[in-house]
Amino acid sequence: MKTLDWLANIVIAVFCLGVLYILIQIFVCVSFTIPSDSMYPAIEPGDRVWVDKWLTGARLFDIFDAAEGKAVDIRRTPQLRRYKNGDVLVFNFPYRGSWDTIAMDYRVYYIKRCMGIPGDTLEIRDFRYFVNGKEAEKGPKRHSIAPYYPPDSVARASTAGYLAFAKDSIDRWTVRDMGPLYIPSRGGTVELTPANCLRYKQLIEWETHDTLRIDSLGRATIGGVRADRYTFRENYYFMAGDKSYNSKDSRYWGLCPEPFIVGRAVMIWWSEDRNGRLRWRRMLRRLQ
């Protein structure tokens, strides 16, 4: 009997630890291994980061539907801390299968720095980021990016790999020079001008599940109904890699909806180089 009691206690303990581990992963924090160098030098390939969910709100949704590629209703526990400019965020890639339609890719995670939060107006001038007219303190640095691109930004506005996400002939935005771009907040309203329709088309169609069209007179319709302005239902964020010349980020694919954000990366807790050797100098390093 003592042996059976001992085994039962071990089974119960293992089960409880398993449940606790799952609850921590869902509600408190989770670890991600970084494979790319798009956030160098803040994060290097082989770093493992802790991602906080507790303060910024944990997501709750049907994981089985998400795994099958179905649209899911994402809810979030109360946020004790809002996402801020300069935060390093982990999120699901907002496009699954096509970059023309927003759909959360449950299996693909990106890590980037948040350069613009809901309500901000963001502008990039010669690779320098400006938020609400003020140059950003954190994020990509021009001196590390500009050498990889020729200076004739406008002349290359039709060149693949150089175009910004809007891909329009009105603004001719490029990854070197773009904006000003208003980053939508929940309850924020924009006029549906032809330029704004190009900038926010994917967001509006994702929110409404209807098609946004512009007629020959420049008038907008959503689902066939005339619309002069649009009020957003979600918050959005502009994400960028610190190693900007090697980062497919919001300059290329647009804005990230808040429901797709997993949480804020706060610390590198483990780090190995490509040969499996430990990089002690990077362990327990707080992300800035």
Plain-language structure description:
By secondary structure, the protein is an alpha+beta fold. It has one domain (2-188, 232-286): Ribbon (Umud Fragment, subunit A), CATH 2.10.109. It is 19% helix and 31% strand. It has five helices and 19 strands. It has helices at residues 2-27, 63-67, 142-145, 194-208, 250-253, and strands spanning 29-33, 47-52, 59-60, 75-76, 88-95, 102-116, 121-125, 128-131, 134-135, 178-182, 189-191, 212-214, 220-222, 225-226, 229-231, 236-240, 256-257, 261-271, 285-286. Strands 1, 2, 5, 6, 16, 17, 18 and 19 form an eight-stranded antiparallel sheet that branches. A four-stranded antiparallel sheet has the order 9-8-7-10, with no helix packed on it. A three-stranded antiparallel sheet has the order 12-13-14. The model has no long low-confidence stretch (mean pLDDT 87).
